[in-house]
Amino acid sequence: MLTYIGLLKFTDKGLAAIKDTTRRATAAKEMGRRFGVNMREVFWTMGEYDVVCVIEADDEQSIAAFDLAIATQGNVRTTSLRAFTADEMEQVVAKLP
Question: Which of 18, 29, 34, 52 has its CA 20 to 30 A from that of 40?
Answer without folding.
Answer: 18
